[in-house]
Amino acid sequence: MNDDNKLIMAKTEEQQEFWDRLRPVNRVATSDTYKRTMSGSSDLFANSFACYNLAARRPLKEDGVNGRFIMAGIEKMLYPWFTKPITEREVDRAREFFQKKGAVKKFPEAAWQKALDNDGFMPVDIYSLPGGQTFLAKDGKHVPMMSVEGVGAIVSHLEPHLTTIYAPLIQATKARLFKEIVGDKFAEFGLRGDRNSLEHVALMGALYVGGGINLTSDDQAVYLFSEYFKDVGTMGHEFVMAHQRSDISLEEAQKIAYKSFVEANARSALLPDTIDTMQSGLPAILALMKEYRDAGSDKIIMPRFDSGDVTAQGIHWVNKMVGPAGLHKMHVIEDGRTPQKARQTQSDYSAVGIDPTVPIEGAGGYFQNGVSRDAPSVAYKRSATMHTVNGKDRLEASLKFSDSEGKRSIPGQIRIYARDNTIIVAQAGEEIDGEALMQKVVSNGRISYNEDWHVQADRADKTWNKYSNIEYSPLTQAMIDVRVNERNAILERLVGEGLQYQS
């Protein structure tokens, strides 16, 4: 599957270039220093088979989320790192730099040699929930989304990259929250607020998977992935400002700008707040709509409410202006919109007899606000290590304790199943009465996942309202209990010896 032309989200040369631009300059040199420090300090840590699981341990603080997440961003996690083999040049340059110039001289050479011996592909398998799959973090439990398995140093090395899945995870989930309220009447306008244009294309992928959002003002996203996105362009304030002159009034400049924009476009969303929304902009837009209607034109003209009390403006527009004039009621609302604001607008519209589905919602900043690793507490923890005891290999489960609630990890070689409304956190090889949810997305360093965003978005539609409970399988719970009981026994002994902490 590692021929780029066979990857369904990298079918064209420019799509491949997009994913390539997200690849680090040197993947071997791209991790946290402490990873290299540990791997260079222990053969057991670096060279033994190990399992890590990637999890969102905390529900988002969003109305209506109810502990749910939508899996997204798999391509962003896999394509930049796994489409092309690790090169000797990457390994040599990283080793030479750190051993000669790094403050920390450690370098896990044997582990990276295993990658080179594997034709450059990292000796790693990844099992993951597929794109669009709903999963849970609630009631003190969580469902890991990935199990990464292979040579310890390399699996550990991937943590800083894989934990960045928090962004598409949050964005896909937020997109679903919007879709649940406004359906398909939504457009995304957040390019200017993103860190860079490449990140915003990836964001659009997450929005499509989570909520089917396909209308955007991001030209590059449309250019690269036209099968999924449609470009939408409205009139910005600068268009009216460009028509302002010293020899005409602001009102005349606004009128000329409106008219010239409408003449040039079949569909126009005009900003009414370039002078004053209620007193100037809306009357001018209404006059244009009447003029073109009376001329028999099929041009679509509407306002785009962008500032002030946009709900009150919309109500006035529909009930006092276009309604009595017998004109269409379409309009765009875009001013720091959130699902909660959209729901309130619908409620206010319904209260005065306006169809709540009339407005087209627009937003951008909402999908970037609060997007941090801490929001869902995304963590990547070692859950098992292969030990050789008396000449026999034995996979030993490990568990990370924490003095902070909700941060305890889940041990073992994780696999995820579903039965009815319950998601089950189980172990590889354990017999479970349920549907296996995880897919093997990387096999021996080669990408084996090949679902397009249509398939993933369809899965989000089917699974969003499907699950409400988390269950740890008998084997998973037994592994947890062994470690918890051992920890409790240690604490009880320390208390008995008078060695407990005194506050």
Brief descriptors of the model:
18 helices, 503 residues, nicotinate phosphoribosyltransferase, 7-stranded antiparallel β-sheet, 5-stranded parallel β-sheet, TIM Barrel, alpha/beta, 21 strands
Protein described:
The chain has 503 residues and is of the alpha/beta class. The protein has 2 domains: 4-169 and 370-496, nicotinate phosphoribosyltransferase (Alpha-Beta Barrel), CATH 3.20.140.10; 172-367, TIM Barrel (Alpha-Beta Barrel). The protein has 18 helices and 21 strands. It has helices at 13-21, 33-39, 43-47, 74-82, 88-101, 109-117, 152-157, 159-162, 166-182, 197-211, 219-224, 237-242, 250-264, 277-294, 310-325, 339-351, 453-463, 474-496, and strands at 49-56, 68-70, 124-128, 134-138, 141-142, 146-151, 186-188, 215-216, 230-231, 267-270, 300-305, 331-333, 359-363, 378-389, 392-397, 414-419, 422-427, 435-436, 439-443, 446-447, 469-472. The protein has a 7-stranded antiparallel sheet with strand order 15-14-1-6-3-19-20. A hairpin with a 2-residue loop joins strand 19 and strand 20. Helix 13 (250-264) crosses helix 14 (277-294) and helix 14 (277-294) runs parallel beside helix 15.
In short:
The protein is an alpha/beta fold and about 500 residues long. Helices cover about 40% and strands about 20% of the residues.
How far apart are the first and last residues' alpha carbons, in Å? 58 Å
Please report the total strand number as a whole number: 21
Name of the CATH class of the largest domain: Alpha Beta
Cα gyration radius (Å): 27 Å
CATH topology assignment of the largest domain: nicotinate phosphoribosyltransferase
Mean pLDDT score: 95
CATH architecture of the largest domain: Alpha-Beta Barrel
> What structural class do the secondary elements suggest?
alpha/beta
Shape: elongated
